[in-house]
Amino acid sequence: MASSLLLLIDDIATVLDDVALLTKVAAKKSAGVLGDDLALNAQQVSGVKPDRELPVVWAVAKGSALNKLILVPAALAISAFAPWAVTPILMIGGAFLCYEGFEKLAHRFLHDPKEDAARHAVLVNALADPAVDVVEVEKDKIKGAVRTDFILSAEIIAIALSTVAASPFVTQFGVLTTVAVLVTVGVYGLVAGIVKLDDGGLYLSKRSGTGALARAQRAFGRGIVAAAPYMMKTLSIVGTAAMFLVGGGIITHGIPALDHAIDALAAHAATWPAVGGVLAAIGPTLLDAVVGIVLGALVVAVVSVVKRVIGGGDKKPQLS
Questions:
Q1: Who contacts 304 (Cβ-Cβ below 8 Å, separation ≥6)?
Q2: pLDDT of 173-212, one tens digit each?
Q3: 200 Cβ contact partners less than 8 Å away, ≥ 6 residues apart
Q4: What do you get for the CA distance between the two ends of the chain, in Å?
Q5: pTM score, two decimals?
Q6: Does any domain span residue 274?
Q7: Domains identified in the chain, total number
Q8: What pLDDT, in 10s, does the model give residues 243-291?
Q9: By the 8 A CB rule, do 97 and 243 touch?
Q10: Residue 32 domain-assigned?
Q11: Going by C-beta distance under 8 Å and a sequence separation of 6 or more, which residues neighbour residue 248?
């Protein structure tokens, strides 16, 4: 009896160790998507009245938790009954990330500034007009953010599943559940902190007093207010780069010939004097990004042609 109990405890400890180790690996692999998820969600709730920012973030977080409740069982079912589908799903998700990243670049360099100005004016006027139902505007933003979260969460869960595809069901369940909880709490906790960062800076900048501590607090607060927009821009840039790195990496790993070719190039670069070690270390990642950019450009071109054919290319400014 005692030996059976000890064996059971040992088995549980082994499973927990496996879950912790594989969760760490899964989190590392999905770090790029997490960065993008953080940047996109912080942008999604921008434009909301300051006193409504946290309620909106909380509403999106609840939607994200519901997404995970759908995605984790679906991923476990795929792993149990159709494990062959994991790689195709990852490839589709990787292609979507590349598409979204290149669409951002295309919008940044090829868009009409008047369109952005019109969109911003519509949103500002809507929030300022007492006749407009602000709750409905918020609902539209929440729905859009939850839809975006579903896509990115599906990619994160798929990446986590690929990490534990050969593990027992209990380990898969533990890793996917842990990743889902950590992602939801971590991302939306950080989003809440980011959207209120400027408010915190403004509060500190208005601290009264003539002492050294009060002056330091005011200076720190002004620094936060000044840095907040740049931090958001940096998050956006990092998130876009992560789309190409993660998406391109998924595509290259899913095509054995391409993956082997990149490994061969990295091995050849390692023989170069002086810079060989550096090129071997960063070369595969850079080539993954190149693959992601090229694929993203192709998908954007195809989608643009399809939109023109079906007449969906012209869009009016939206509130979301």
A1: 313
A2: 888 888 888 888 888 888 888 777 777 888 888 877 777 8
A3: 221, 224
A4: 62
A5: 0.67
A6: no
A7: 1
A8: 788 788 888 888 888 888 888 888 888 788 877 788 788 888 888 889 9
A9: yes
A10: yes
A11: 94, 98, 287, 288, 289, 290, 291, 292, 293, 295
